[in-house]
Design goal:
single chain, 287 residues, 9 strands, binds ligand C2E, binds magnesium ion, EAL domain-containing protein
């Protein structure tokens, strides 16, 4: 009986795998089409300078509205795009779109907004990433220092010498590099200093319980002092409350992003938000 049940479960389980495989390959095809038909969108989440309350940057985040299934989150479609290497043209697309947007904003007088784009490990290791980005930036006539690249610690782990060389080239072009989700990987202080990184982004898992969890607070403080030693800036991710923003500011964290300041939003909403914050950013934080 038990054996029979085991078999049955195995069948069900393998059916689940098959369904999942099928769904993934269907999504992959749909994603191909979406890229070709220009159905992908970019949302921008503001990055705030805690001292002034002003928007000094944004993170560009990819959005996909599937024709039948509706919105599908990046946590679902990015892994599929990575596996199929479709992330390479998709990544190139979002860099192009972001540079176009930076240009449009600066032409409209919205200056001083630095926009960060996420780069997957697969894309980071693709041939001539730096050359590709350099050409895209030049084609929009923007300054390279208006574009930031976010990579996770996992990128640093494989072939560190190769990665350092690519980063050095990106720095030479004038781009800045941020380490995303910092604290969830295994980078040490000694290891980190070998890469030309300008920004550490404190992962939101350490921000969430900042008010109650002394360990998380300690980790956030350690990242802030580590960044100071290495001459890097710090961005706290996932800030959802005024109390969290206050604690982070008190420990010397310069920048923050999160629902408390604004969710990722389309470009029009971002523009409204930027105008409001330029006018009374400091007041918004104090209140
Ligand atoms: P990430 O780069 O760490 O981006 C931050 C994620 O946290 C975003 O999720 C954002 O919406 C979410 N977030 C921001 N503030 C808060 C907050 O206060 N609370 C909570 N709970 N969440 C917050 P999103 O847009 O769903 O993206 C998820 C991940 O997908 C990103 O994590 C990034 O790793 C990846 N991703 C998104 N767009 C791209 C892209 O264009 N290229 C690549 N390679 N990856 C991307
Ligand atoms: Mg990111
Ligand atoms: Mg992150
Ligand atoms: Mg992430």
């Amino acid at each position: 009986k038990a054996k029979e049940m085991g078999k049955r479960q195995l069948v069900l389980f393998s059916e689940d795998i098959e369904t999942d495989k099928l769904e993934r390959s269907q999504l992959e095809l749909a994603l191909h089409a979406a890229l070709a038909r220009k159905e992908l969108r970019v949302h921008y989440q503001p990055k705030i300078e805690l001292g002034s309350g002003r928007i000094v940057g944004a993170e560009a985040l990819m959005r996909w509205n599937h024709p039948d299934k509706g919105p599908i989150g990046p946590d679902r479609f990015i892994p599929i795009a990575e596996e199929s290497r479709l992330i390479i043209p998709m990544g190139r697309w979002i860099i192009d779109e972001t540079c176009r947007q930076i240009r449009e904003w600066s032409d409209a007088g919205m200056r001083g907004i630095k926009v960060a784009v996420n780069i997957s490990a697969v894309q980071f290791r693709s041939p001539d990433l730096a050359g590709d980005i350099e050409r895209i930036v030049a084609s929009h006539g923007i300054s390279p220092d208006q574009l930031e690249l976010e990579v996770t610690e996992s990128v640093l782990m494989e072939d560190p010498a190769g990665v350092a060389a690519i980063m050095a080239r990106l720095r030479l072009i004038g781009l800045t590099i941020a380490i995303d989700d910092f604290g969830t990987g295994y980078s040490s202080l000694a290891y980190l200093k070998t890469f030309p990184v300008s920004v550490l982004k404190i992962d939101r898992t350490f921000v969430r319980d900042l008010e109650t969890d002394t360990n998380d607070k300690g980790i956030a403080e350690a990242i802030v002092s580590m960044a100071a030693v290495l001459g890097m800036r710090v961005v706290a991710e996932g800030v959802e409350t005024a109390a969290q923003a206050g604690i982070l500011q008190a420990m010397g964290c310069g920048l923050a992003q999160g629902y408390f300041f604004g969710k990722p939003m389309d470009k029009t909403l971002f523009e409204d938000h930027w105008r409001d914050r330029q006018a009374d950013g400091a007041l918004a934080i104090a209140g």
